[in-house]
Amino acid sequence: MAIDFTLAPEYEEIRARVRAFVQKTVIPAVEGFGGEDPVSREEYLRTIFELRGKARAEGLWLPHMPKEWGGMGLGQVELAMVQAEAAKTRLGPWILNCSAPDEGNMHTLLHWGDEEQKEKYLRPLLEGRKMSCFAMTEPEVAGSDPTLIRTHAVQDGDEWVINGHKWFISNARRANFAILIAKTELDMPEGARGANTAFLVDLPQEGWNDVREVETMHGSTGHSEIVITDLRLPASQILGGRGNGHRLGQYRLGPARLAHCMRWISQAETALDMMVDRALNRYSHGSLLADKQGVQWLIADSAMELYQCKLMVLHAASKIDKGEDFRTEVSMAKHFVANSLNRIIDRAIQVHGALGYSTDTPLANMFQHARWARFADGADEIHQMRIAERTIAAYRATGSTAVATGNLPL
C-alpha cells in the first residue's frame, strides 16, 4: 500500500523540535504582548528578532525553502506539520520565516526571478534582512479576478511608467520591496490572461504613495491602500517576463493557499482543545457541560470537521510534492478549512458563553482573524465555481466525476 499517514523518523524529530521550540521558547516570550501591561515597541522588536535568531540556531529556519538557499528543504507534507506546530501562536510562522506574504514571495522569486533579482531580493528575504508585499488587489474591480485590474504600465523608452490604485496590500508599510501586478498589454480585451506583468518595486520610492492602513475587524494590522502615480521603473525590474503576471500570480497563490490552511488547522485545533477543556471544567444544571448532549454534539461536529481538514490538506500537499495537478484539491481544502475554522471557533465561543465573547480568552481575537479566511486568496464562491467547473469538465471528459474528487483509489 502506498497510502501512509505516518512521518519518517527524521521528520517526526523535526516536528518534535518545532513543537518544543514554539511551546517552550516562543510562547513564553510573547505571551505578555498585548496584555494589560503592553511592552514597548523596542522591547517587542528586540524579543521577536531574538527569537528569529534562536530559530536559525536551532535549524528551524525557512522550512519551505531548498537547503541550497538556507532552508530546511521540506516538501509540502512535511511543511504541513511544521506550519501547524508554528501557528499555535500568531508569531510562530514569522519567527521561523515562513509566514505570508513573504513565504509566497520567496517561492515566486525562486521560480521566476533571474540571478540578479534573486540576489537582490530573494537572498535578503531569506536571511530575514528584508520584508516584502504582493500588490495585486484593487478597490475598483473584483479582487478575485486579477484579469480585470486597472493599474497599468506604459513603456517610455527604457522605462515603464505605472499608474493605478491598490488596497489591502498586506505588509506594505513594513516592506522593503513589492511585487506589483500591472496591465502592460493595453490593447488586449478585458479578461485576457496575458495582459498583466509583475514588477519589482524598491520601497520607499517616488510614485508609490501609501495613503492609509485600512482598519479591519481585527484592527490596523498592515493592510495598506496605495496610490501609484507616475512610478518609473526600468525594464530590468520586470519579474518573470512581460505578460506573465497572471501566471506568476496563480503560481504563487496555489501553495500559499494551502500554507494558510496548514496554519488555520492549528488555530482550529486550539479552539477545539479549549472547547473540550471548558466542557470538562464547567458545571451547570446538575452535571459538567461535557456530559450534556448538546455540548457533545458541538465537540463531535468540530472533531469530525478537523479530521476532514487534516486529510484534505495532507492529500493536497502530497499532490504538490508529486508534481500532479493540485488545483481542485487545494481549492476544496481552502474553502473547507476556512469555513471549518470559523465554525469551530464559533462553537468554542458558545461553550465558553460570555467568557468566550470577552477578550479574557484568545477566542474573540481568533474569531475576528478567522472571518478573513473565507475570502483571502479567493472568496468561497470563486473556489466553488472553479470546483464545479472542473467537476463538470471531468464528467464530460471521462463520464465520471472521480478525477474531480481527489482521484483516490476508492
From TrEMBL:
Domain of life: Bacteria
Name of a matching Pfam family: Acyl-CoA_dh_N
Protein family according to the UniProt entry: Belongs to the acyl-CoA dehydrogenase family.
Quaternary organization: Homodimer.
Cofactor or coenzyme needed: FAD
Domain Acyl-CoA dehydrogenase/oxidase N-terminal: 9-128
InterPro entries: Acyl-CoA_dehydrogenase, Acyl-CoA_Oxase/DH_mid-dom, Acyl-CoA_Oxase/DH_mid-dom_sf, AcylCo_DH-like_C, AcylCo_DH/oxidase_C, AcylCoA_DH/ox_N, AcylCoA_DH/ox_N_sf, AcylCoA_DH/oxidase_NM_dom_sf
Signal peptide: none
Species assigned in the record: Sphaerisporangium flaviroseum
Chain ranges of the Acyl-CoA dehydrogenase/oxidase C-terminal domain: 243-390
UniProt-recorded name of the protein: Acyl-CoA dehydrogenase family protein
Domain Acyl-CoA oxidase/dehydrogenase middle, chain residue ranges per copy: 133-229
PANTHER family per UniProt: ACYL-COA DEHYDROGENASE FAMILY MEMBER 11 (PTHR48083:SF13), MEDIUM-CHAIN SPECIFIC ACYL-COA DEHYDROGENASE, MITOCHONDRIAL-RELATED (PTHR48083)
Alphabetically ordered keywords of this record: FAD, Flavoprotein, Oxidoreductase
